[in-house]
From TrEMBL:
Catalysis performed (reactions): Exonucleolytic cleavage in the 3'- to 5'-direction to yield nucleoside 5'-phosphates
Domain SAP: 63-97
The protein's name: 3'-5' exoribonuclease 1
InterPro entries: 3-5_Exoribonuclease (IPR051274), ERI-1_3'hExo-like (IPR047201), Ribonucl_H (IPR013520), RNaseH-like_sf (IPR012337), RNaseH_sf (IPR036397), SAP_dom (IPR003034), SAP_dom_sf (IPR036361)
């Protein structure tokens, strides 16, 4: 009887319109598989006694009992993306029905993350050896940025420059093979302070932090807390204020799709979402583009990407989900350390 009622709720939602979006798991070896209806989101509506949340919970219960083939068929019927593992498809359907019902009740917000107008995806490449000594100083040798418009959910621009290392100017064979960056490329490049100045000009031309709200996004914590922090100290410049907080997409992905930390590597995230890596792995610009594809897919699935890490005393620190939304400040030219 309950199942018949919940299936009726799903059909009822389908009559409210079409769209794309939202909330569940994804990868091989999943560790979470709820068979119970998902609880309502505390941020969506203030009164949980409203019948809308009971209907959403019933719909979630029906979706939890669907097989992967049934989930794909339902996504196809609703003109949603049919790619991804079972829990990703569940998340997508749940978000679709939730949004449709909340729209119907005049209580929904917009699609995806519309607080930030733009998201800047950054994935540095740095000097390395096959077996890095514990005190090895990684120097940035590629500075890429991929710009996502969160309103159109598209990649709209990119920046890339190679960087000349100064402490260890000779690249190891391992580094060349891994990144595809040759000695000639870095020898002909500018030093980091010069490249960072051009990055700032590029960001300023986009009016980020002034006209538009934006945030940086990385694949993990190392890009900011390890590579950028170390590089700024080596170059004797202050760490840029606009990079003090960022979105760690691994953390966002794992929390949103409810997967183990081991399933949040770049290629695994792509695989779980039904996508393949495009380009050359460990090319900074290609990595950034693929990370951007994941971010866009997550936004379409209803994830509200938000800053979740910050630099504190040279170490990464989590930003609680209860913290207010905050965009990065306007970028400024790098300053010398006192």
């Amino acid at each position: 009887m309950m199942e018949e009622k919940s299936e009726h709720v799903v059909r009822k939602f389908e009559n409210t319109g079409s769209g794309t979006d939202d909330d569940d798991n994804g990868c091989a070896n999943k560790q979470h598989s709820s068979e119970e209806p998902d609880p309502p989101s505390p941020t969506a509506h203030g009164d949980f006694s409203d019948p809308v949340y009971k209907e959403i919970s019933l719909a979630n219960g029906t979706i939890n009992r669907m097989t992967r083939d049934e989930l794909r068929a339902k996504c196809a019927e609703l003109k949603l993306d049919t790619r991804g593992v079972k829990d990703v498809l569940r998340k997508r359907l749940k978000n679709y029905y939730k949004k449709q019902k909340l729209k119907q009740a005049a209580a929904s917000g917009g699609l995806g993350d519309t607080y930030y107008d733009y998201i800047c995806v950054v994935d540095f490449e740095a000097t390395c050896e096959e077996n890095n000594p514990q005190d090895f100083l990684h120097e940035i040798i590629e500075f890429p940025i991929v710009l996502i418009d969160t309103h159109t959910l598209e990649i709209v621009d990119s920046f890339q420059e190679y960087v000349k290392p100064e402490v260890n100017p000779q690249l190891s064979d391992f580094c060349v093979d891994l990144t595809g960056i040759t000695q000639k490329m870095v020898d002909e490049a500018d030093t980091f302070p010069c490249v960072l100045r051009r990055v700032v000009v590029w960001l300023q031309e986009k009016e980020l932090g002034t006209k538009y709200k934006y945030a940086l996004l990385t694949d993990g914590s190392w890009d900011m807390s390890k590579f950028l922090y170390t590089q700024c100290r080596l170059s004797q410049i202050r760490y840029p204020q606009f990079a003090r907080k960022w979105i760690n997409i691994r953390k966002s992905y794992g929390n949103y799709y409810k997967v183990a930390r081991s399933q949040t590597k770049l290629t695994c995230m792509l695989e779980n979402l039904g996508m393949q890596y495009e380009g050359r792995l460990h090319c900074g610009l290609d990595d950034s583009r693929n990370i951007a594809r994941i971010a866009i897919r997550m936004l379409k699935d209803g994830c509200q990407l938000r800053v979740n890490e910050r630099l504190h005393g040279g170490e990464p620190q989590s930003v609680p989900i209860t913290a207010p939304f905050e965009g990065a400040p306007p970028p400024q030219k790098p300053k010398s350390r006192d």
